[in-house]
Amino acid sequence: MKHKIIVTGGLGFIGSHVVVELQNEGFEVVIIDDLSNSSVAVLDGIYAITGQMPIFEKLDLREKTNVVDFFKRHHDVVGVIHFAASKAVGESVNRPLLYYENNLNSLIYILQALYKKDRANFIFSSSCTVYGQADKLPITELAAIKNAESPYGNTKQIGEEIISDTCKVSDNLKAIALRYFNPIGAHESAKIGELPIGTPQNLVPFITQTGVGIRQELSVFGNDYPTEDGTCVRDYIHVVDLAKAHVAALKRLINDDNSTNYEVFNIGTGKGSSVLEVINAFEEVSNQKLNYKIVERRQGDVVAAYADTTKANDILGWSAKLNLKDALSSAWKWEQVINKK
Questions:
Q1: Kind and range of the H or E run holding 100
Q2: Domain that holds residue 28
Q3: pLDDT tens-digit series, residues 47-63
Q4: Catalytically active residues, by annotation
Q5: Do residues 307 and 128 touch, judged by C-beta distance below 8 A?
Q6: In whole angstroms, how far apart are CA 330 and each of 243, 325, 326, 336?
Q7: pTM of the model
Q8: Which end of the chain is more exposed for a tag (fewer CB within 10 A), N or C?
């Protein structure tokens, strides 16, 4: 019998790629999404890749009665992978209550439902933002958790604490928090990828939109950082590699081969790339020059962040296989498809 897995926010950028990998591995997937930051058309892309149409329910997870009713109907669920959350850092600063309500209430209601089950598995979409500017690079899971720079980052920290505290008093619930570094790219088929609404919040969609002519110019926020070329350094991981990490984590939970019921893993490549290195790599894979200019630093940006992935490599048996150029090439292919260039 197939294991039934719930993927909240499963029509989003990362969630849709995880659904593809789960279905390719033989899991039965039920997607919950309120479509506030995604499109139902993503289902067609998932079907085109896997040949399977996942079950989909449009649901607002902030409504507790909706969550209770859903788990009554899907009582045979084995696990939940939780992506559903608001994620724009700038917006979270301006609308903190929206972020706390959406990101924490939905998490609490899902955990309350799982807490009642005889056995349940939970994977949380966390972030390297919990480390802030780490004292030492590369960043291990033992690095200090710094004060959050934004309400969004704070919801990730609080979310991890809520899960940890719940697992301490629940023998039937097992959870893994995956701290992502910087997911980029798209599925090689160009059937699914990142679909930012409005102005992109992340570097690579802004690069590809500039490359395709939607944006006139890319702003590089500062070139006076203490890095090799003066621009910020990040760990850019291909979204397909990231999706495969979720499958590895889920199998660990289901197979019950971990001694503790709550674990945390960094998910990245282990390599840092500067903003200018990303731009140069994009120009190489796209065979065109990118129009960009150096502007003032952006408040809240850390100098450098890249992962020590040893724990995920050793315990999950997972490692990133795709490189920066692979990710940028797939992102560019996706951008051209959605803009019919």
A1: helix 96-100
A2: 4-184+236-269+308-320
A3: 999 999 999 999 999 99
A4: 152
A5: yes
A6: 15, 8, 6, 10
A7: 0.97
A8: N
